[in-house]
Amino acid sequence: MTSHHPQHTGHELSRTRSHEGDRATRDKGGHQTGHNQPPSPVDVQKALKGMDYPCSKAELLACARDQHADRKVLDTLQHIPDIEYKSPASVSKELGKLM
User: Fold this and answer.
1) The domain containing residue 77 runs over which residues?
2) Which end of the chain is more exposed for a tag (fewer CB within 10 A), N or C?
């Protein structure tokens, strides 16, 4: 008695795996930041390009507005302490405390 089971070549499985991989890659790269996530430190520093230090919180906000910063960046800068910032690193330090 001969069994007539179709032989699996492995292509069916690899096709399924390749589609799963494509889906995972697309999902991963969909959004840079979530809706409730703060902006990255890089985004904030880009918004503060050309800032002269030391400076105040108000000067940081003015610079970010002049650079047409994203709303998330401006909102985040609103929450840092109103102190004198001596360098970009001091701004990043305060941002880190918020996250």
Assistant:
1) 41-98
2) N
